[in-house]
Amino acid sequence: MSEALWLSLGGAAAAGFALGALHFQLLWWTTRDLHTSRRPHLRLALSTMLRMGGLLAGLALVTGLQWPALLAALVGVAGARAVVVRRVAPSRRASGEVAA
Questions:
Q1: How far apart are CA 44 and CA 47, in angstroms?
Q2: What is d(CA 61, CA 97) in angstroms, rounded to the nearest whole number?
Q3: Which site among 7, 9, 50, 89 is 20 to 30 Å from 41 CA-CA?
Q4: Is the distance from CB of 16 to CB of 73 less than 8 angstroms?
Q5: Where are the alpha helices (DSSP H) in the chain?
Q6: What is the Cβ-side half-sphere exposure of residue 88, based on CA atoms within 13 angstroms?
Q7: What is the band of 5 on the pLDDT scale with cuts at 50, 70, 90?
Q8: What integer pLDDT is reported at residue 91 of this predicted model?
Q9: The model's pTM
């Protein structure tokens, strides 16, 4: 494979990581504060639509819907999920919740 292709895939993976980190951090903030909301069902529904819409639009924009770049970006999203889960896990343990 050419060097340009590797750079393109690396950029797609980095962009996927950034989009995924934003998506999962917003998910964490939404669920953390859900119990204080007056309308939790509405907040959850709107948050889900905005997060998923932003993630899908960002992935489409970054990858140009080319499957190698899209696959690399999805690997980045999965990596971001792992990082965010590890990052927020200590606060779950500190609050007395049991990790699943």
A1: 5
A2: 38
A3: 89
A4: yes
A5: 3-32, 40-63, 67-94
A6: 15
A7: confident
A8: 58
A9: 0.81
Rounded Cα gap, residues 95 and 52, in angstroms: 28
Place of tokens 């980190």: 21
Residue 98 has which token pair?
């049991």
Q: Which residues contact 11 (CB under 8 A, 6 or more apart)?
A: 62
Give the residue from 74, 41, 39, 75 showing the smallest Cα distance to 59: 74
Least Cα distance to 53 among 65, 63, 61 occurs for: 61
Q: Is the pLDDT of residue 19 over 60?
A: yes
Task: Reply yes or no on whether the pLDDT at 93 is more than 60.
Answer: no
CA distances from 39 to 27, 31, 45 (A): 16, 13, 10
